[in-house]
Amino acid sequence: MRYRVNLPVPGLLRRTIDVAFTRSKIAVFVDGCYWHGCPDHGRLPNSNREWWTEKLSRNRTRDLQTAQHLKGLGWEVMRFWEHQDPKELADMVDRAVRLSRTSEAERQ
Question: What are residue 81's DSSP bridge partners?
């Protein structure tokens, strides 16, 4: 499968797609537990807690805006946490890309 890494998000400055399958229009993001506020593993530092709370909240808001923007452009957005099993995630992405290709072939 052909893919691009760190592809700029069309129409949004300073945002990138971690792994992009451009033909299928599938955007894959692997979010770090700390920086994206994982409910299971995300932790706030003890110092400067208020600032970090706001910072991580802005990160999550930006993630949602990016996903909505891409969906509006016809992309499928897949988001995963860094602690998830890479093999399972790869299988899910593989299925999504193959399904997309099958659907595209049926439309033609």
Answer: 31
DSSP label of 5: E
Q: What is the CA radius of gyration of the chain?
A: 16
Between the two ends of the chain, the Cα-to-Cα distance in Å is 20
Cα separation, 105 vs 108, in Å, equals 5
Instruction: Categorize the per-residue pLDDT at 108 as very low, low, confident or very high, splitting at 50, 70 and 90.
Output: low
Quick one: tokens of 25? 């229009």
Residue 58 φ/ψ, nearest 5 degrees? -65, -40
What pLDDT does 19 receive? 98
pLDDT of residue 104: 67
What pTM, to 2 d.p., does this model score?
Answer: 0.89
- Alpha-carbon distance of 40 to 76, in angstroms, equals 25
> What does the alpha-carbon distance between residue 83 and residue 79 come to, in Å, rounded to a whole number?
12
Average pLDDT value over all residues in the chain: 93
Tokens standing for 99? 């399904």
